[in-house]
Amino acid sequence: MPALDRLQAKLGLKAEPEIVAISVDPVSLDQLRAFYSIVGISNLAIYKGDQAEIFETLGILGLPTTLLIDHDGKEIARLIGPTVWDASEITDQLSSLVAISTSAN
Description:
Blueprint: H1 2-11, E1 22-23, H2 29-39, E2 47-48, H3 51-58, E3 65-69, E4 75-80, H4 88-104
Parallel strand pairs: 1-2
Antiparallel strand pairs: 3-4
């Protein structure tokens, strides 16, 4: 989460793509806000969803799973497992994927 927060900070708060981290933990929004505060997350919006529904709808088998979805709602990339989201090679790959997706439309 902190690496995703740093990546969103690099991209800017109104950036496209926007990073959408969805909590599927059985906690309240107040608990999520407290977690964000404790961990120092300030660049990500708080989203919460039902784990079973999200897993089924998106075809997720486990966490963490990351989907890159274009403006038309089409999945253009999927990463299963953790990664260092703010590493330069990751930001370069994301920029390439976004550029490819944008030029394909």
